Automatic annotation (TrEMBL):
SUPFAM superfamilies: Clavaminate synthase-like. InterPro entries: Fungal_Metabolite_Diox, Phytyl_CoA_dOase-like. It comes from Cymbomonas tetramitiformis. This is Phytanoyl-CoA dioxygenase. Residues 296-328 are annotated as: Disordered.
């Protein structure tokens, strides 16, 4: 931990209105939306994620920093359609209105995945998830990642740590391939089979280069996201951050989805954790209405089924009457 930067209390980042949420997101690089998802819903999501992981092959996971014990798995949208629609519309559409205000209702879904941080996971180096294409702020698309915490995250369970206010600092993208990010064996203290305590102390903060260090030192403070199950935090992934070590015996599980503004230059370096069949297909507006479309489709299907059942019953009844007409 950088002793020169103040640890900012997490409640300072919470918001209850779209206006306040947008203000804090633009100021700090993230905002906390408390309790958007019920504990019961979190359990349902965990079960779906666990099922997806049991069916996944190693090639299905996305390349990230410290991949040996951080499992980033793109997910099928279908089992989650009602969950996503509820999330984007709950509490007077706080989350949906925030995303629309920042990135527009035509913002494209560019990531949909789960992140599981295994016990013993080492801390990540401080990094950005995406980089601006140019130093001209207005030329770059806005990009937001929505994280849904599926469990309580105390300080020992690998919370995200954010260097506040660094999202507008330009760090040129070096063109690192995803494969280079994935191959962290040289800088990781553990493997898939070694899920014991990490070797490196969690306060030993690594960074990618001197420019990153310079921007870290210019941050307005550090926030540690020790959130509860059902809390949602929306992050501008240009902000400098890292996942801390998971020193607990329990995995940290998160569902996340990312949206990118469609009318401007795309940001660089995203891992694009989304199944290929969804790439570029869905907008914020599509997902907000998905559940209503499914309900309408299900209603139409049920209406047709009942009509067919009724017609079938009528035919059977007529046949029985005709078949018995000549009997005494």
């Amino acid at each position: 931990m950088d002793e020169s930067l103040a640890q900012i209390p997490l409640p300072d980042f919470a918001a209850e209105t779209p206006t306040d949420a947008a203000k804090k997101l633009n100021q700090h690089g993230f905002v906390l939306l408390k309790g958007l998802v019920t504990v019961l819903r979190c359990e349902q999501i965990r079960q779906l994620v666990d099922l997806a992981r049991t069916r996944a092959a190693p090639r299905d996971y996305t390349a990230i920093h410290r991949p040996q014990s951080r499992k980033d798995l793109p997910l099928s949208l279908h089992p989650f359609s009602s969950i996503i629609a509820d999330l984007l519309e709950c509490q007077d559409s706080l989350l949906g209105k925030l995303i629309q205000r920042i990135a527009g209702e035509e913002a494209r879904l560019v990531e949909f995945a789960s992140m599981t941080i295994l016990p013993g996971a080492a801390a990540q180096p401080v990094h950005q998830d995406v980089h601006m294409a140019s130093a001209d702020q207005d030329a770059n698309a806005r990009y937001l990642t929505v994280f849904v915490s599926l469990c309580d995250v105390p300080s020992e369970r690998g919370p995200m740590e954010i260097w506040c206010g660094t999202q507008n600092m330009y760090i040129p993208w070096k063109g690192t391939e995803a494969a280079d990010i994935s191959d962290c064996s040289a800088c990781s203290e553990q493997s898939d089979e070694d899920n014991g305590p990490v070797v490196a102390e969690d306060y030993e903060v690594e960074h990618e280069d001197e420019l990153t260090l310079k921007h870290m030192q210019a941050a307005t403070g550090i926030a540690q996201l020790t959130v509860g199950a059902g809390d949602v935090y929306v992050v501008d992934p240009r902000v400098l951050h890292r996942g801390r070590a998971n020193l607990s015996l329990i995995p940290k599980q998160t569902l996340y989805l990312s949206f990118e503004e469609s009318a401007k230059h795309p940001l660089l370096g995203s891992t694009n954790s989304i199944l290929g069949r969804y790439s570029g297909r869905f907008t914020l507006n599509d997902l907000r209405n998905a559940d209503r479309r499914d309900q309408k489709k299900n209603l139409e299907t049920e209406t047709k089924r009942r009509k067919l059942d009724s017609e079938s019953s009528a035919c059977i009844a007529r046949g029985q009457v005709e078949g018995t007409a000549g009997l005494p």
